[in-house]
């Protein structure tokens, strides 16, 4: 059945899989959103399987969708490689996916050096789950993300490790401490990420394991906004130690929380260009 697919079908699905958004994918493909939606539906009918599902406002690839995206990207890579041997086409830009924290605090200098060498690079943003899915599916060549346990099916190289830290204003009761433990946060109102974020979930589990009481001062998305609310005096926050702060905020390591480890993630069997990007980031 896959042999019946035409190159245009594979290209359309590869772009859709990368964006997981019909409007943005349609813009890149220069087709309307309804036309692309109809094309993907016809593709599902031809293959006899569902390629994506909708959860709330987000679209997620099914297992079949991830496999087709990987096949589509691999086909495009092989075609591009063959054409390069004929001097018929330039190589496609590599694709890097990482979270906002990685781009802000870990990758700025390596990316600047990489791009100043005249190399093309397409950047995507995503959390850990989205990063692993994109690399597995071939919609990204390289991912950078924080992982608790690296998966066995991908090549994961440790990039950096940071302690988890408590950030407080200089007038907070804990500001003079060199280190703290979670029990020191008993009855604190904390600035935290939304409930579905992995950092929040780990913090909640750790506090629950120790039987500690705490409350939510405010929920905020993104490290910079958490730091901003701490500076305003809304409450302290537990953040990744890579997060940059100002002199108005104290950073204190939390001794009984595990460190945050960032990895560079690629598929096995990568080519020399992907290896070059991987080395540039590490």
TrEMBL record:
Record-linked PROSITE patterns: HTH_LYSR
GO molecular function: DNA binding; DNA-binding transcription factor activity
Signal peptide: none
Pfam families: HTH_1, LysR_substrate
Gene Ontology cellular-component terms listed: protein-DNA complex
Record key words, sorted: DNA-binding, Transcription, Transcription regulation
Domain (HTH lysR-type) ranges: 5-62
Keyword Transcription: yes
Homology family: Belongs to the LysR transcriptional regulatory family.
Name under which the protein is recorded: LysR family transcriptional regulator
Species, as recorded: Kribbella speibonae
Top-level taxonomy: Bacteria, Bacillati, Actinomycetota, Actinomycetes, Propionibacteriales
């Amino acid at each position: 059945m896959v042999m019946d697919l035409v190159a245009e079908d594979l290209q359309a699905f590869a772009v859709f899989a990368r964006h997981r958004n019909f409007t943005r994918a349609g813009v890149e493909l220069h087709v309307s959103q309804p036309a692309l939606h109809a094309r993907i539906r016809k593709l599902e009918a031809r293959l006899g399987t569902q390629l994506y599902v909708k959860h709330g406002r987000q679209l997620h690839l099914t297992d079949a969708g991830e496999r087709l995206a990987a096949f589509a990207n691999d086909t495009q890579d092989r075609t591009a490689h063959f054409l390069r041997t004929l001097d018929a086409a330039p190589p496609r830009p590599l694709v890097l996916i990482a979270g906002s924290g990685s781009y802000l605090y870990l990758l700025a200098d390596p990316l600047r050096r990489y791009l100043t060498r005249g190399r093309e690079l397409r950047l995507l943003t995503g959390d850990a789950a989205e990063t692993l899915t994109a690399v597995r599916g071939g919609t990204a060549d390289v991912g950078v993300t924080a992982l608790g346990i690296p998966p066995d099916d991908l090549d994961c190289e440790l990039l950096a490790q940071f302690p988890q830290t408590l950030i407080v204003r200089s007038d907070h009761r804990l500001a003079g401490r060199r280190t703290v433990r979670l029990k020191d946060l008993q009855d604190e109102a904390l600035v935290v990420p939304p409930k579905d974020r992995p950092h929040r979930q780990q913090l909640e589990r750790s506090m629950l394991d120790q039987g500690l009481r705490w409350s939510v001062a405010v929920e905020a998305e993104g490290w910079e906004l958490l730091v901003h609310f701490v500076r305003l005096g809304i409450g302290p926050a537990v953040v990744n130690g890579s997060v940059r702060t100002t002199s108005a905020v104290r950073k204190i390591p939390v001794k009984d929380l595990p460190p945050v480890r960032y990895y560079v993630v690629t598929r096995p069997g990568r080519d020399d260009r992907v290896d070059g990007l991987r080395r540039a980031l590490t």
